[in-house]
Amino acid sequence: MLYYLFNYLDTLDFPGAGMFQYISFRAGLVFIFSLLIATLFGRRVIDFLQKKQIGEVVRDLGLEGQMSKKGTPTMGGVIIILAILVPVLLLARLDNIYIILMLITTVWLGLIGFLDDYIKVFRKNKDGLKGKFKIIGQVGLGCIVGLTLYLSPDAVIRENVGKTTNQNTQIETVHYAQQDVKSTKTTIPFFKNNNLDYADAFNWLGEHKQTAGWILFVLITIFIVTAVSNGANLTDGLDGLATGTSAVQVVALGILAYVSGNVNYSGFLNIMYIPGAGELLVFAAAFIGATIGFLWYNSFPAQVFMGDTGSLTIGGIIAVFAIAIHKELLIPILCGVFLIENLSVIMQTTYFKYSKKRYGEGKRVFKMSPLHHHFQKPGDGSIAARIQHPKIPVPESKIVVRFWIVGIILAALTIITLKMR
User: Fold this and answer.
1) Sequence-separated (6 or more) residues with CB below 8 Å from residue 24
2) DSSP string, 118-187
3) Is residue 314, in this structure, part of any structural domain at all?
4) The predicted structure's pLDDT at residue 73
5) Which is more confident, 276 or 165?
6) By CB neighbour count within 10 A (0-12 exposed, 13-18 middle, 19+ buried), where does 193 fall?
7) Do both 66 and 30 map to the same domain?
8) Residue 141: CA atoms inside 13 Å, Cβ hemisphere, count?
């Protein structure tokens, strides 16, 4: 909203109003604004949650320091959501299709997570919203995102079709297609010609291959939104773990969005140019400010938990963000922490059922899943118990910081994949 106001003032030669045309300037303002909302408004939300006795219900699973979390206010994801939405609505271009998608994602998954927390806290149902309804919501969002990117005339790319090298100066010049086009192409890491077209899998369909490519793209979008939002939900088990990890991931995504939306930077990196994608830097800045501000209260020992209201939302935001800038195939690297958490649960459940059926007694791969709890729990007879001394659980704060470090390494690797080909 303020963007349009200052844009109008700029036409009247109002001093300084032209600064709002710069994405980097607005991103800086949004970061500060969201950080202040999360820290200042966050305290009021926590006090309200404590007054209403909206606390975490904790089961004793034998984890180090677990029972001390009992009664800690939950549903704090509301802080993150508000700290994202308010600055973005004020300072972003609301006619940008990518910003619209991110706003829809934030509200959509925020409502699903809020409903889940509400059932757990107020109706005293520890299972919360039934899993099938969560999946329906995630699939619905995936359909909205995929079909919007398919149907919207503003969601286009300009493909990098080749490059030439000046023999005298050795300077490379990237050549782009003459016009923006709708495309099912995405960036694939570690390959020299790093544009992968989903439609190529359907060459045998002839003139219908592009339609089939879009159908595949929508299905992949649904899968990614579901997987990443659930991965973030599983990662939210220790104080500050999901918050810090997701902030690092969105720093990387913000950089990728900015270079993809700038024809000069995308030309330098020899990647597809995505008109309008640079505006996503404003949203990324809001997300980073909101999560860092929330971390003020969520770091060990946590004064508030984000609950599903926050974890489902941040996971969905990361997924849709990556899809919007055609970098979804980088998610296994960027969101490696979420991926490992997901896989640890799948491995644990699958092996337990298999061993119980075969040997009559269920056995475990990890001492506990998701993976972060494995390091928190004293050793037992699980296969992976030898990874650490069985009598000495790792302190929670150390587990969190080490996962952050892994996340930083993966984020850096994600960015440099643009040149590692």
Assistant:
1) 281
2) HHHHHS--TT-S-HHHHHHHHHHHHHHHHHHHHH-TT--BB-EEEEEE-TTT--EEEEE-SS-B---EEE
3) yes
4) 84
5) 276
6) exposed
7) yes
8) 34
In order of 65, 221, 305, 384, the CA distances from 60 in angstroms are 10, 37, 18, 22
| Residues 88 and 286: beta-carbon distance below 8 Å | yes
**Do residues 75 and 222 share a domain?**
yes
288 and 359 co-located in one domain = no
The 3-state DSSP class for residue 16 equals coil
Rounded to 5 degrees, φ, ψ at 161 are -100, -5
Same-domain status, 149 and 294: yes
- What are the pLDDT digits (tens) for 291-347? 999 999 999 888 899 989 999 999 999 999 999 999 999 999 999 999 999 999 999
> Is 75 a domain residue?
yes
Amino acid at 96: N
**Amino acid found at 254:** G
pLDDT in tens, 129-139: 888 899 999 99
Q: Is 363 left (phi over 0), alpha (psi -120 to 50) or beta?
A: beta
Average pLDDT for the chain: 87
In a domain, 186, yes or no: no
The pTM of this model reads: 0.92
Chain centre to alpha carbon of residue 69: 26
Answer whether residue 103 shows pLDDT above 80: yes
In a domain, 43, yes or no: yes
Same domain, 328 and 368: no
- One DSSP character per residue, 48-85 reads HHHHTT-B------S-TT-GGGTT-B--THHHHHHHHH
**Over 70: is that where the pLDDT of 66 sits?**
no
Total domains, the chain: 2
Q: Looking at the structure, tell me whether residues 249 and 208 fall in a common domain.
A: yes
Six token digits for residue 211: 């339609």
Residues 152 and 288 grouped into a single domain:
yes
Q: What angle do CA 188, 197, 221 make, to 5 degrees?
A: 75
Which residues span the domain enclosing 314? 24-159+191-334+411-416
Domain shared by 94 and 145, yes or no: yes
pLDDT digit string, tens, across residues 262-273: 888 888 788 889
